[in-house]
Design brief:
The structure holds two protein chains of two kinds. By secondary structure, chain A is an alpha+beta fold. Chain A has helices at 19-36, 51-57, 87-91, 106-115, 136-146, 168-195, 198-211, 269-284, 291-302, and strands at residues 40-46, 65-71, 77-80, 98-101, 124-129, 150-154, 216-221, 243-251, 254-262, 306-307, 316-318, 325-328, 342-350, 362-371, 374-380. In chain A, the strands form three sheets. Chain A has a six-stranded mixed β-sheet with strand order 4-3-2-1-5-6, sandwiched between helices. In chain A, strands 10, 11, 12, 13, 14 and 15 form a six-stranded antiparallel β-sheet that branches. The longest helix of chain A has 28 residues, at 168-195. In chain B, the strands form five sheets. A seven-stranded mixed β-sheet of chain B has the order 1-5-4-3-2-6-7, with helices on both faces. Chain B has a four-stranded mixed β-sheet with strand order 9-10-13-20, covered by helices on one side. A four-stranded antiparallel β-sheet of chain B has the order 14-15-18-19, covered by helices on one side. Chain B is globular. The chains are: A alpha+beta, B alpha+beta.
Chain lengths: 387, 401
């Protein structure tokens, strides 16, 4: 469930992401500007999706939206959809010094004079990133400000920002997220073993993650033995069925997520096949491996069980500044995995309705970095059988 | 229909009973159906063929969520609701696996879980035989351009925008919604009580926020727009960060839990250690402003009148020049996710208050001598005055050290 605001720490962590890191991140963008003849690229992100904006500016909109105005040369500007009262707090979230409110009547004051520096005799082309996400009203505002003096060109297809190959400091951030995730997942399992209350367990996990400065925490639990997952219901009831749940944590912009199944009985055939399928997924992660091939191997390891429908016919995807990054590991996937890509690997078993016990619904996962030597597991679901 | 779609007829009283209490569910269904009925009547009155409501999956505490208002479901992802002039309705939610939960809560005739919102919406519009030239939309303008373009392409046109329709329809809280708002306020006050117990020098802001957030969630708050920050001299409130609390810090908190779709907000000021007398003196101005605002906030008054009553107190105290951004933002505002009416509490808002409207009134103010201070309550408009939903009005609280 998308929260109304992100909590946790969103300050620019200069010890982990120093200014020179962003200078390097901007290099690819500036090279593209040179190739395309763009004097500037406008980068949009909102509270839901802001990977490119966060990658280039470190700014993560806690609510509404933000837009980085990045010039080929000269000083960048950041607009945020917050009142002028809130600008001081916004300035602490980005390396960009020139932060303005772009909200409501502030838009024209903040956007128009900045963009005017690029006016020329001919129509000027500007690149855009993330504009597909923009609400029509704001897009119309941009269009009105630009008039016929500028033309927008979609840069999303030309530039993969952020890229699939994680930078060294991104890997450091993802490791930190995975540490928070593992602490939260342990709390999830421990709490359930003590209370048998799935929602209490999810909340205890969330508490651990938030106490470690997670900005966002998403949890899902099953109330029907793992057949379906639901967000927070506020019921806090005991359940005799095994725990099947999900948790995602976001720390300083970077996501890590995990499915969890805990059954206090000995391992079932379903859980053994799910573990085998996850092992197969991990074993198949290597540079150049095709996403469809990885999918096929995982499905083969699951046999005779079928993939849990909650996974939407996918056994994984990229993860980073977005919870859900390309590529998706589906049957028809042709994308080759890249070295230093980070992937959420997910498997699950949906027991056939006929005859099999509810406990045969299983969902587990891992997060792995792709290295030249194969997968480096950054996080993995705890063992299914707790006993 | 793709294999990822799970058509789940609602009419789901019996099936719903394991998800929420039967009585509560029936009460909700009645409320939601009354909104669907009123929306249907409006379509008929205006000779319209239908309505398409959409949600981007965000639950903005300042905004109306049309899918929630009409369908009774807080969507996880992008979603839509189709209502036709005969009163038949279909809810479409993403992802597909959320269909079961949505069907259990929805007051629509049908509920569909899908991974392809655009194709399913086009199919449902066809099923309802809507003439899109005589159909209106609510919330489509909140969707991203790419998705909206795909919808326009699938429908071959976009219906006329009528974004005010649902927020007007839900501008006065029902008895059930008011009860939920009162419960949410109770949760907010428990959350604040926890702050008074838990805050101490050495604690980081985000640790305190984590504690408050989870305490309130345990009490039933499904969401929380929680701002909470500290300084020896605050310029504004912000989301919690890494600051370590210390003696003399003034903690500002804007505690905003949501319970059954009703956001409420209380604004509080707390000092670690004994505050300077000057801070108490300045906080009293905010309390006076709150009292004036409550007295002015009766049914029939204009929002502008309430704003002027609050600002008048600051002007009288010599802070008239500070009654503008960045020294404050607004004197209050409506609360989502049913309806954000009556809107921002500002002098340019001429909307007339109606009995049963709910909004937060907060004469929060930067004062040069004390810094930013906060004092605010969720109120319901009544005939004689606005009534605070809080059991204990804001005061300058002290954490002993």
């Amino acid at each position: 469930m998308q929260p109304s605001i992100m909590l946790g720490s969103s300050m620019w962590a200069q010890d982990r992401l120093p200014q020179d890191e962003f200078a390097l991140r901007l290099d690819d963008l500036r090279a593209a500007m040179d190739r395309q003849g763009w004097p500037s690229v406008l980068v949009y992100g909102d509270a839901r999706e802001h990977a490119a904006l966060a990658f280039l500016s470190n700014f993560i909109p806690r609510m509404r939206w933000g837009m980085a105005l990045l010039p080929r040369t000269g000083e960048a500007r950041l607009l945020c959809a917050m009142g002028t009262r809130d600008l001081l707090a916004m300035r602490a979230m980005t390396w960009i010094a020139d932060v303005h409110s772009g909200w409501g009547p502030e838009w024209e004051k903040a956007f128009d004079p900045w963009i005017a520096q690029f006016l020329g005799e001919r129509t000027v082309e500007l690149g855009t990133l993330g504009f597909d996400l923009m609400a029509p009203a704001l897009h119309e505002q941009v269009r009105r400000s630009l008039g016929d003096r500028f033309r927008l060109q979609r840069a999303d297809d030309i530039l993969a920002i952020p890229g699939s190959r994680k930078r060294p400091r991104e890997l450091m951030m993802l490791r930190a997220s995975c540490k928070v995730l593992e602490a939260a997942t342990k709390a999830f399992a421990d709490s359930w073993c003590n209370s048998q209350e799935p929602e209490s367990a999810a909340l205890d996990a969330e508490h651990v993650a938030r106490s470690l400065a997670a900005q966002d925490v998403r949890t899902l639990i099953s109330l029907d033995g793992g057949r379906t997952l639901v967000p927070y219901q506020g019921r806090f009831e005991k359940s005799a069925a095994p725990l099947v749940g999900y948790i995602a944590v976001k720390v300083l912009g970077y996501w890590a997520d995990m499915f969890i199944t805990v059954d206090d009985r000995s391992a079932t055939p379903a859980s053994r096949h799910a573990e085998a399928a996850l092992d197969a997924l991990i074993a198949n992660v290597r540079p150049g491996a095709r996403s469809g091939e990885i999918y096929a191997n995982a499905i083969a390891a699951l046999q005779p069980f079928t993939l849990h429908p909650v996974l939407g016919a996918s056994v994984g995807h990229g993860i980073g500044l977005s919870l859900h990054e390309a590529p998706e590991f589906r049957a028809a996937g042709e994308t080759a995995l890249v070295e230093d890509g980070v992937y959420a690997l997910q498997v699950g078993v949906a027991a056939a309705e006929s005859g099999q016990a509810k406990s045969d619904h299983v969902l587990i996962s891992a997060i792995a970095r792709n290295t030249a030597k194969g997968a480096e597991v950054l996080a993995r679901s705890p063992a299914i059988a707790a006993a | 229909m793709t294999e990822n779609e799970y058509p789940l007829a609602s009419g789901a009283a019996a099936r719903n009973s394991d998800a929420i209490g039967v009585q509560a569910m029936n009460e909700r269904a009645i409320v939601r159906n009354s909104r669907l009925t009123r929306a249907t009547r409006q379509l008929q009155d205006e000779a319209l063929d239908g309505l398409i409501a959409a949600s981007n999956g965000l639950n903005n505490f300042l905004d109306s969520n049309a899918v929630y208002v009409l369908g009774g479901v807080r969507p996880i992802g992008e979603s839509a609701l189709v209502l036709d002039r005969d009163g038949a309705s279909t809810l479409i939610v993403t992802p597909a696996w959320d269909g079961k939960r949505a069907a259990a809560l929805s007051s629509t005739d049908d509920t569909i879980g899908t991974d392809d919102l655009v194709a399913t919406l086009a199919s449902v519009v066809g099923t309802h035989r809507l003439d899109l030239s005589r159909t209106v939309s609510v919330g489509l303008s909140l969707l991203g351009r790419a998705l909206l373009d795909r919808i326009a392409s699938a429908l071959r046109t976009l219906p006329r925008t009528a974004d005010e329709l649902v927020r007007d329809l839900a501008r006065v809280r029902t008895a059930e919604e008011l009860a939920a708002a009162e419960r949410a306020t109770w949760i907010a006050e428990r959350g604040y009580a926890r702050l008074l117990e838990y805050a101490r020098p050495g604690l980081r802001e985000f640790e305190l926020a984590a504690e408050l957030y989870c305490v309130m969630k345990k009490l039933g708050a499904e969401d929380n727009f929680l701002l909470m920050s500290a300084s020896q001299h605050n310029l504004a409130v912000r989301a919690a960060g890494e600051r370590i609390l210390d003696v003399g810090d003034i903690i500002l908190s804007e505690i905003t839990p949501c319970y059954r779709g009703q956001f409420v907000q209380i604004c509080r000021t707390t000092v670690i250690g004994e505050p300077r007398p000057l801070v108490r003196e300045k906080f009293a101005i905010l309390q006076d402003a709150m009292r004036e605002g409550l007295a002015a906030g009766h049914a029939g008054a204009r929002v502008a009148d309430v704003t002027r009553a609050i600002n008048g107190v600051f002007q009288k105290a010599g802070y008239g020049d500070y009654c503008r951004p960045p020294y404050m933002r607004v004197r209050g505002h409506g609360l989502g996710i049913t309806s954000d009416r009556p809107g921002d509490i500002v002098e340019r808002n001429e909307r007339v208050l109606e009995s049963g409207m709910v909004f937060v009134m907060h004469p929060n103010q930067y004062i040069p001598e004390s810094g930013y201070l906060m004092c605010g309550e969720t109120v319901v408009v009544a005939d004689e005055r606005a009534r605070s939903l809080s059991a204990r009005p804001a005061q300058l609280d002290v954490i002993a050290v």
